[in-house]
Design a protein that fits this description.
The complex is a heterodimer of chains A (499) and B (128).
Chain A lengths: L6 H15 L4 H29 L2 E4 L10 E4 L1 H24 L2 H5 L2 H17 L3 H19 L5 H32 L4 H9 L4 H19 L7 H5 L5 H26 L6 H22 L4 H22 L2 H32 L10 H4 L1 H15 L5 H15 L3 H27 L18 H19 L2 H15 L2 H8 L4
Antiparallel strand pairs in A: 1-2
Helix pairs in contact in A: 1-2, 1-5, 2-3, 3-5, 3-11, 3-14, 3-19, 5-6, 5-11, 6-7, 6-11, 7-9, 8-21, 9-11, 11-13, 11-14, 12-13, 12-18, 13-14, 13-17, 13-18, 14-16, 14-17, 14-19, 14-20, 16-18, 16-19, 17-18, 17-19
Chain B lengths: L1 H19 L4 H22 L24 H32 L15 H10 L1
Helix pairs in contact in B: 1-2, 2-3
The chains are: A mainly alpha (499), B mainly alpha (128).
């Protein structure tokens, strides 16, 4: 099956090429993207089954054995991430049919979307650090273009900040790469795991670790490096902001998890304390930032920051339960967050604005929309029996078991403050009567497209499903955490006995 | 040779940080160009330097005889240069479009995505 490991990367790129060829046929582009998303999703399911059935899978690209060639590696974490990428990809592909304006399609929306997904899948699957850099660049390039595609003032303004800070992160990553390569002569992650244990210069290793922490911290939106995120995520079309919010920062979190389990496994040193402190500050600052805003997508953007704190908390605790919690949180969050952004688009369609003061009365007009909002919103806040409850419970329990009572307290309080923001959106958009000023008066008569409602409903269903039957995902997260904490099997599968 | 490169790289990074801390986007671009070239030099130096020893296998041998220049960092740098060039081209266009639309290159004056307060945002929106 190993040759097929590249399928989740190849499918989106193939579709992107197809969409470029059919530049003048939007329906062809859209159909190809839908088909690609379905295939990508199938490949993700199949990959996860393969990894669960017969262990970690490796593809030595072009037949060059690691560490000389580039290796694609699928361990349970990678496979899970690829699968959930497929879910968001499919949801956004369907949603885009009704959401994306023909002008944006003419400017190349579909090719860019597919390239973005290809880059994300590549970042999840690669086992080589330099290759990870390349996938980051592919992803960034596509995301830059998607972000400023509409060329509105707000998009250009947000885009400048997003581009600038992400380029600096990339340079920091590249600097770390250069130093680590000079020190060990390899860039294969599994090989680095072995080589760095024998490294003679702990000072340089620590410097590189901090460079990676900063670079991936910027991409993940970790405190105090997150300011680019709420500056830009509310400006592009809804479908774009959904895929950004679901997947882009999570690639940063994934890179953090991969780096600090496989390459520089955390020890009880200052770095771990730093990560835990950053995680706590990220949770608090994110949720407080959200509390001060009244624009739906800006509130949601700040909540991405806050939620990233939980995942990094799981990484920083570095126990089997905490890492499993982080993985569970990642999966739960990607589905819920992307869905909330998609719903914000529905709210904008029916209410005429993203600004809470200008909308209202949606409960009366579209009661089912209130239900669709309620599920992911209160899952985000951690209400039982939704998926966020289990995610938060695992992490809080892991903090308590690790004796980090203050962190457990922060995690619980931040959950409570999340409820505040979600209730604010609920009260303003759904319960309050439609204000006289602002909004479109004929909003009530705007029918919502089935293309937009269907993915929202399916993802809400997934959230409820994970909430009611969390056991399979918990088991998967646990097996992912086991591989992360005991990388011997991973290393052996990639580079064999060669030490 | 390493010492010269180290000093050069340090000077370039110092200059680039100074430029990038500016609010002016034009200065930022120059800073970015300097920084990306500094990183390329760093990768080059980190791969160990050899003068006039190409990594070629002599005709009468079947493998490389050390020490020779390390070709891998050069391949990495080449990749980084190509990617960096594409990003630079994009960022130039982005900044020029931004200047055309917003009429400023001062990042402090760019408040369209994050207006100072919601009330201002509403009034600004009406003015346009």
């Amino acid at each position: 099956m190993n040759g097929w490991l590249a399928a989740p990367i190849l499918i989106p790129f193939f579709v992107a090429a197809l969409a470029l060829l059919g530049r003048r046929q939007p329906s062809l582009q859209s159909a190809a993207t839908l088909l690609g998303a379905a295939l990508h999703l199938a490949a993700g399911v199949w990959l996860l089954c393969g990894v669960q059935g017969s262990g970690i899978q490796v593809l030595h690209v072009a037949g060059w054995p690691a560490p000389f060639g580039i290796a694609l590696v699928a361990d349970p974490l990678s496979a899970l991430m690829v699968l959930v990428t497929g879910v968001v990809y499919a949801a956004v592909a369907v949603y885009s049919r009704a959401d994306i304006h023909t002008d944006d399609i003419a400017r190349g929306y579909y090719p860019l979307l597919n390239i973005l997904v290809g880059g994300i899948s590549g970042a999840f699957l690669t086992g080589d650090l330099f290759n990870l850099y390349v996938w980051f660049e592919v992803m960034l390039m596509a995301s830059f273009a998607l972000l400023v595609m509409g060329r509105t003032r707000a998009q250009l303004d947000g885009g400048v900040k997003y581009v600038v800070i992400n380029l600096i992160a990339t340079l920091l990553f590249l600097t770390g790469l250069g130093l680590i390569f000079g020190m060990t002569g390899t860039l294969n992650m599994a090989h680095l795991h072995v080589k760095l244990r024998m490294a003679s210069d702990p000072g340089v290793v620590a410097a590189v670790a901090v460079l990676f922490l900063t670079a991936f911290g910027i991409k993940a939106g970790l405190f105090p490096l997150f300011f680019w995120l709420p500056a830009s995520y509310h400006t592009p079309p809804v479908a774009v902001s959904a895929i950004f919010s679901g997947l882009l920062t999570k690639v940063g979190v994934y890179a953090l998890i991969r780096t600090f389990t496989l390459i520089f496994p955390f020890e009880d040193n200052g770095l771990r304390t730093l990560v835990l402190a950053a995680a706590a500050a990220t949770m608090i600052v994110g949720v407080l930032g959200a509390a001060t805003h009244s624009h739906v997508r800006r509130i949601l953007s700040f909540h991405i920051v806050s939620q990233v704190g939980y995942m990094v908390l799981g990484l920083g605790l570095f126990t089997p339960l905490a890492l499993a919690g982080a993985v569970f949180y990642l999966i739960h969050h990607i589905i819920v967050k992307a869905n909330l952004f998609l719903i914000s688009g529905l709210m904008q369609r029916t209410g005429g604005a993203f600004e809470l003061s200008r909308v209202g009365g949606m409960y009366r007009r579209h009661g089912w929309l209130a239900l669709l909002f309620f599920i992911p919103a209160f899952s985000l806040a951690g209400f039982p029996p939704l998926s966020g409850f289990w995610a938060k419970m695992i992490l809080i329990r892991a903090s308590l078991e690790a004796g980090q009572f203050a962190l457990a307290g922060v995690a619980a309080v931040v959950g409570l403050l999340t409820v505040y923001s979600m209730t604010k959106i609920w009260n303003e958009a759904f319960w309050k009567p439609q204000p006289e000023t602002g909004g479109t008066s004929d909003a009530a008569s705007v029918p919502l497209s089935g293309w937009m409602v269907a993915p929202v409903a399916v993802m809400a269903g997934l959230t409820v499903f994970i909430g009611l039957a969390p056991e399979p995902l918990v088991q998967l997260a646990r097996s992912a955490a086991d591989v992360l904490l005991e990388p011997a099997a991973y290393v052996y599968t990639v580079i064999g006995e060669m030490r | 040779m390493e010492a010269v490169l180290a000093i050069l790289t340090g000077a370039m990074v110092a200059g680039s940080v100074y430029l990038m801390l500016s609010r002016n986007l034009i200065r930022f671009i120059f800073g970015l160009v300097l920084a990306s070239n500094a990183v390329n030099l760093l990768i080059f130096a980190a791969g160990r330097l050899e003068t006039a020893r190409p990594p070629l296998i002599p005709e009468d041998a079947s493998r490389l005889t050390a020490p020779v220049a390390n070709s891998l960092p050069q391949a990495l740098i080449l990749t980084a240069i190509v990617i960096g060039f594409a990003l630079l081209a994009f960022i130039f266009i982005l900044f020029s479009k931004t200047y055309a639309k917003l009429g400023t290159v001062d990042t402090e004056a760019m408040t369209d995505a994050e207006p100072p307060s919601e009330k201002d945002a509403l009034t600004q929106g009406k003015q346009r």
